[in-house]
Amino acid sequence: MSDPLRPRASLRTAVVWEVLKDALERRVKTAGRDVLDVLDTGGGTGNFAVPVARLGHRVTVVDPSPNALFALERRAAEAGVADRVRAVQGDAHGLFDVVERGGYDTVLCHGVLEYVDDPAEGVRNAVDALRPAGTLSLLAAGLGGAVLARALAGHFTEARHALTDPAGRWGEGDPVPRRFTADQLTDLVSATGLQVGAVHGVRVFADLVPGVLVDTEPGAMEALLKLEAAAAEQPAFHSVATQLHVLAERD
């Protein structure tokens, strides 16, 4: 996934970025500080961390891949925010071996729960990293989007398998270990005591529309971005989104 601020990549990231940016602005007002401490678990090469740092915040990125962290540092340097981005090798399971418990105003947990052995533990650790009145941004693979994609590709047996599989996988060749429904994600968050503020469907249409159409038709990308933003807030579309985003806050 590319930088949320690059136009083509924004089809995949725009909804989450706008929600996150608004949440950070609210947190600045409530915290009474212009600079927030943000933790990005599984942040990889800095798809969100670098844009967050561009807003002036301090970002700690925890990721198990040294190659991803090297790319993150290079990306941060190129963006002129190297002094605000810290790369730390680690994972969600051993999060507090490498970062401070209760030390962050906002925690991003994007693309992590699909891969951890215990999603509930992953959410608990992310929440435990928050300061009082902190904000959690959670992004995970959606079950319905995978079912729809397999069906539209003509793989009907795989689509049905994903519907009945406990992990939401369509078969042994599925590269995603686990998928979630909106209810499953909100239950995981609510179990930690956080209040769920909003749920958004992400990439409702972007993965289904032919790229050549978006790239060649005048105004198509802008129109699709607006459609994604409008559909993201509609619960009816959560069940067919490729990803699901949950924003929650600690009272």
Automatic annotation (TrEMBL):
It comes from the Bacteria. Coiled coil: none annotated. Keywords: Methyltransferase, S-adenosyl-L-methionine, Transferase. SUPFAM superfamilies: S-adenosyl-L-methionine-dependent methyltransferases. The keyword Transferase applies. The keyword Methyltransferase applies. GO terms for biological process: methylation. InterPro entries: Methyltransf_12, SAM-dependent_MTases_sf. Residues 39-136 form the Methyltransferase type domain. One of its GO terms (molecular function) is methyltransferase activity. This is Methyltransferase. It comes from Streptomyces auratus AGR0001. The lineage of its organism: Bacteria, Bacillati, Actinomycetota, Actinomycetes, Kitasatosporales.
